[in-house]
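Because showing beats explaining, we let one protein speak, sequence and backbone structure tokens together, and leave readers to judge.
___
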Amino acid sequence: MDIFIQNIISQLKTIFSPTVLSAQFAQILSKLIIGAVVLAAFYLAWLLINPFLKMIFKRSGTNEMTSTFLSTLAKYSLLIVGSVTALDSMGIKIGAVLASLGIAGLSIGFAARDSLSNIISGILIFIDRPFVIGDIV
């Protein structure tokens, strides 16, 4: 039993030695920096795209509700793509993450089927625009 405990202690000393810990810390820090740079690049892309989208919506005469909706949709789409790209660049396997998100979305979709149908109906009314602001329904 004494040899077993001494073996465990020597293994723990090896694992937690300053050289091993500093190498692990440097590796983790470099991955975090890479992820932060990727997220910053996507944020910069959003800062460049947002005024361009506003200009396009203004020139095309798109009403304010539609332009706000599309701008928010573009923002969150870019956020999701940026997050997945950052995770991938940090060395995290995103296949399992995406599969988990898909299964979670499917289960939430089945659980909130009525609410989702109302949301989709609202989006379709929003797109077709049978009513405008100020109409009495």
Summary: The CA atoms of residues 101 and 107 lie 10 Å apart. Helices lie at 2-15, 18-60, 64-89, 94-111, 113-128. Residues 36-92 form one domain.
